[in-house]
Amino acid sequence: MQFDTPRPFLVKFSLVLFCILALGFIIWIGQDIIVPVAFSTLLAILLLPLNNFLEKKISRVWAISLSLTISLTLLSALIYFFSTKIAGFIDDFPKIKSQLNLHLQTLQSWAYRQFHLTRVEQRKYIDEATTQIQGNKTGSGFIGQTLITITNSIIFLILLPIYTFLLLYYRAMIRKFLVSIFAEHHRQHVVAVIQESKSIVQGYMGGLLIEMGIITLINYIGFLIIGIKYAFFLALLSAILNMIPYIGMLIASIFCMLVTLTTSNNISDIIWVLVVLVVVQFFDNNIIMPKIVSSKVKINALMTIFGVFVGGAIAGVSGMFLSIPAIAIIKVIFDRIETLKPWGEILGDDITHIERGKLLKKAKERLKRRQKQIAK
């Protein structure tokens, strides 16, 4: 019996597809364990250059502790800033509620003029829609879900520094394990994949932080010019949500418009907020993102959007954020395996370079023809 007979295409395709689906199912089932480890891995890779520098001066334990302390201090400062702004937002809630009631009355008057619906009928439709959305959810169920979410968040914040410390401390052992489990003739490719994945994640995470700072500054200047309340808070929140590709800015735009609606009497302020966010998003998509972030991660827009939705379906908002570096690492692995190279090509953005090359070639040909016509 021959075992080296090439497998049919359908068999190979089915095996690859099955492995991808199985991996997604495992992540979905074990997301409470995998997501903290994934975020800790990203943080460890981001802190690796600083940690390597500190280890030249002090011991590994102190170097890791110091680098973690710096990162956690910055994260705590960000959380404290948001908590104070949210507290101020809650203090203004009576004023916001009255402002919202004023806009609601205006909307009800418009609905009566356009559709001849009385306020009682409008209230009835709203109550029916709310009942359909809520379904069978009870107050106790909502409270229970809220407590579970808070508990999971606290556990995540506790596990994040612990996992990060251990990953940095045992990184040499983990690297040796990942190389050793493969055959001798594959180890060179494994080392290349690890090194390239590390470079991609560092470039992507560093680029995201730079992008977040630039977007925050531009949004803040735009909101200050408009003169809306909570300008810096909304600018920073929009920049953080923008880290979720494509979906984040849409959520940020809706939230900023709602906050502006409840804190301003002028409808024009809402329109200007949307204009600022759209202009910044255009500037980000065409200048900041390609130059700072996308140059590190060669993934096409179709797979990016698809990956974000799949990540959200598997692991929620955390999955959306983790989807881009995960796809980038998967692409690096696929590009190193001969039978999986087509899968890596469908994830990549090489078509852009091909089209640019064709356009450049056509432009050169046109230039040569024009020079010949001028010479004649």
Please supply descriptive tags for the structure shown above.
single chain, 376 residues, mainly alpha, 86% helix, globular
Outline the structure in words.
There is one protein chain. This protein is an all-alpha fold. The protein is 86% helix and 0% strand. Helix 2 packs across helix 3 (60-91). It is globular, with a radius of gyration of 26 Å. Residues 352-356 have low confidence and may be disordered.
Overall radius of gyration: 26 Å
Q: SSE order, as H and E?
A: HHHHHHHHHHHHHH
Contiguous runs where pLDDT drops below 50 for at least 5 residues: 352-356
Largest sheet: none
- Percentage of helical residues? over 70%
Helical segment tally? 14
| Average of pLDDT | 76
Class from helix and strand fractions: mainly alpha
Shape: globular
Distance between the termini: 73 Å
User: Can you count the beta strands?
Assistant: 0
Task: Give the DSSP E fraction (strand runs of 2 or more residues).
Answer: under 5%
